[in-house]
């Protein structure tokens, strides 16, 4: 329980500092409402049916995007990792596309797929592909060549080697990429909702809160909910990874 206690103490200290800065007038409360006001609004939003629909819309878009990224990146990563010639031939294209910020592609994606949920799903998928892809390629580089040579000497086909040798070895690395992509995908979904003005979603709620009267308390409350979602997703995936790949953690510790 010690890490939990330390985290709670740190969180409490941050909230007290936030409350003090706002109450003492160091910043205008219109710009930075006190923590107590923002938390009250946050709990109120969690009981608001309209806001919960926005949360569901964002989570659903995130889940679809992450699933598509996994389906695209895992086979592509294993293929590029197993075929050095193909990997070299596509390196220039991959290195050109990878650094492009997803939000910079918003106008293009809206023109191609429209401004509905498809746009945020497409952009989140694009952003989430790269960590999974690179972890899959890296995992293939770490495979003991003796395992591949043994499988080939037994007459095992390339597809069977990928499925029975490469994929089990790559699974922990790929899962790490999925954890990274999960956070990136959620960031992109909310960002696109905010920038492109989606019909629903947490980003759309924050955009509406900033317009008109400029309810900064609602803006921060929506931001806290988005951050809480990100924390729960990462914590859940981390716990799942420890359960699924306990053998990998143990073997790594023994190797060290």
From TrEMBL:
Gene3D superfamilies: MetI-like
Membrane topology: Multi-pass membrane protein
Alphabetized InterPro entries for the sequence: MetI-like, MetI-like_sf
Keywords, ordered alphabetically: Cell membrane, Membrane, Transmembrane, Transmembrane helix, Transport
Protein location: Cell membrane
Residues covered by the ABC transmembrane type-1 domain: 55-237
Pfam families per the UniProt record, alphabetical: BPD_transp_1
GO terms of biological process kind: transmembrane transport
TM region(s), chain numbering: 55-80, 92-115, 121-140, 183-206, 218-237
Similarity field: Belongs to the binding-protein-dependent transport system permease family.
Name listed for the protein in its UniProt record: NitT/TauT family transport system permease protein
